[in-house]
Amino acid sequence: MASRWQSKNGTATAGSSVQEEAARETFVFGPFRLDAEQRRIARNGEQVQLSARAFDILLTLIRHAGTVVSKSDLMARAWPHSSVDENSLRVHIAALRKALGDGHAGDRYLSTVSGQGYCFVGSISKPDETQPEPSGLPYAHNLPAHPRHMVGREQTIREISERLRAQRFVTVVGPGGIGKTTAAVSVGYALLAEFAGQVHFVSLGENCDAVLVPAVTAASFGLPARSNDPSAGLASLLRGRHMLLILDCCEHVIDAAAALAEQLFQEAPELHILATSRELLRVEGEHAHRLLPLASPPEKASLTAASALAYPAIELFVERATSGGSEFALTDANAWDVGNLCRRLDGIPLAIELTAGHVGAYGAGAMVRLLDEHFNLLWEGRRTALPRHRTLRATIEWSYNLLSEAEREVLDRLSVFVGSFSLDAAQAIVATAKDDDAILAIIDSLVAKSMLASSVDPQLTRYRLLDATRVYGQERLAAQNDADEMARRHAAYFLALLENTDGAARDGFPAATDQFGNVRSALAWCFSDRGDRGIGIALTAAAIPLFFKLSLLTECEHWAARAIEALDETAESARRSLALYAALGTARTLTGQFDDLAMTCLNRALALAEKIGDLSGQVRLIDRLHLLQLLTGKFHDALKTARRGESIALESGDPGALSRMHLALGISCHYLGELAASRAYIEAAMSRFGATKDVGGEPTLDYPGRAPITLGRILWLQGYPDRAVEIARKAVSDALTMDHPTMLCRALVWAFDVFYWNEELESYEDSIDRLLAESRTHKLATLEIVAEAMKGIALLTRGTTGPGLAMLKGSVEKLQNRRFGAVAGLSVPLAAALVAANQGGAALDTINQAIAQAGRCGFLMEMPDMLRVKAEALIRKATPDMLQAEQNLAQSLELARQQGALGYELRTATMLARLRQRQGRYRDAEELLAPVYGRFTEGFGTRSLKTASDLLTELRFSRSDRLAGSW
Fold first, then answer.
1. What positions does the DNA-binding region cover (predicted)?
2. Burial class of residue 690 in the structure, from the number of CB atoms within 10 Å of its CB (0-12 exposed, 13-18 middle, 19+ buried)
């Protein structure tokens, strides 16, 4: 371990030494300066006493700042020639924390990453990157205490400093709690040397009278209070002086602060001004720097403790969570919850600090749920903070109280939105007596005052309230009499938005997909005690395509069930009832709830479609009913249903509908082992325009690869392995780019067998992992279990027998409990794995059960392979039954020939030929295998055909040897 460190860092080798490396290393962080050459660390010039090993540990962590260093690597560095346990390392880490004051007064340098190691999280600079205080010059600055550790703001400080140098007058703008004052003070310290200490800080936050702004500012410079014109006195004092003036917290005295800043900027040409405000001063010479939230991980990010620390919001959260002595530690298990918290807090530093202070009491996961249930605006922060920064409520109220009455009314009403919203949506909900131009002016003012965020894309401007501000506004709105009216307007607006989205646009839902949070919120109100059930039913029906587009099937099921319960309370249309029953039945089917309720809902919807003469709707519903019957193992019923659908499609004259029913017929025949008929139906479906096109803009069960993958499966069985795999690869590649998780998962499951049959799962494992992740994320329970079975099979093919067999066996048992119709197919690899593990008896029980189940339901597609695997199990029993094994192999061969399944026929023929070879029946073996092998026209590079070819060669040599011996 030590040698690896030496090689990695270039130390302690023949050509260099620790001293030579250290001579180039001096690090500055906070008040500390670490000189690696002299092995000395000082705090504000005073040496800090550390043991040699503690110094080595600290130096190693600093050299790898921002990354996690494992415990074993640290121990190898500090004890290169000794073997020690982790307790020794923990003792020295504790000593380091004590010596550095880690966790006190907000200082944070060392972070523990549970189960991995330690990470240095302080901001480090080299001596030549800092500007030392010039000796001999008096420092007249009155800056507040230097912020010890500015998380995620280093680049911001540099950018503001550059703009001040070039443009003289910069206003840092942003919402309350985002860190404007901290940034301004940090800039002041960064520029101390440039201004020879002449940096002056004036806090206007405690001044409630705008008239006094010039006087307060003048008094801070020591000018006499009796001056009749403090502004003129200030200008005279500052004229010709090279100085940085920081005017902090200008928003509540904005007019007076703007006038003073403009006058000083014009009359003192050497003066640089840095202001902070929640809105721009809007005066001559001003340049804006909008302070952005700290970066948080995206919603779907896969986080570990180490990768999470790359996001400044999480780094700040961890620092604040541990600074007060909390036992909290960032781990791989809680990293996603912490990232979710920071994202929910909009990356606002104050909100993160206040929330992080309570994570030790609740835990990260509970904190997420707490935010969902009630966004706490009263959690207190530092006692020494300004009153407006001690709670989130105080921060928001500070800004809220500066708004006009009209601005407050609009902000309160906008709090009904969740997430972003358009100007049209805002005007529809606000809808006061004011005209649209007046509302737009108020919204623009709220944006300018950092109470409302805006973003512009090529098509549309979006607005958004920060979550804390939205919760505050909701509390204000709830106290008023028109809260329910705003909620009704909100629900009605999104109902109109969804109903006006035509079929062509629904492929992408450009205006609705990013509005799902608002749709969900509107539905929650509609079905609440104070809600409007009529709007709720209509909104649920209109949102069904959106639920399917976003693969939110569990939520679709929930709201469809709520709407159906409310149908008796309203005079609903048959079409809406049809849509709701169809959605509930389909959602339950796709989430793996193969029960009577799903079947009843689909049949009820089909009856409604027949009643109103909706032929297209009947085709869609028959497609869903067909899928449910396949999944529950009712293969003969599924074939009848598909034939019924074909008749309706012919009546409708819709080529897309007919293609869909031919696809359903092809899949039914495929399961029943009727390969020729199956291929004919699939090719007919693929040859006709619109084979997978949505009908009427409604959600469909088709996906682009459904027909091609089915064709690939058939081609493999018929003896065309190269073409089969080529088609499957193309379909999988297309599926992986599909923006539809549910359909992606179904495509990946359907394609799996082609790669499994062809014995090349190595190229498919990434797809299995993707399937597992997507099915878990979207709560597709049955597909998740199937994915786990596939993962188990993949592990078995790689020789990882124990975990693979356990995963596959457990998955098969779960699928049997869920009444999954095709579970018999997964029993084939399970029985084969049991045979390979010398568990012949268990293998025989498994395959017998699968054969019986397949026979009862007509699942004949894999019956030839089941019989082959049964023969293997009989041979591998404690007492082999060779006669019965040969009979099963003969049955397998005959059935494969009847079905036209040349792929299975080759497998069985190879096994039976190998058995006859062992019996010395070389001619019989060759005469059995050679004709089967000879019918192949491709796939000679696949494992099955190579095995058969090698066996034929062996058989011919064996026959030759016997002939030679007889002579």
1. 24-122
2. middle
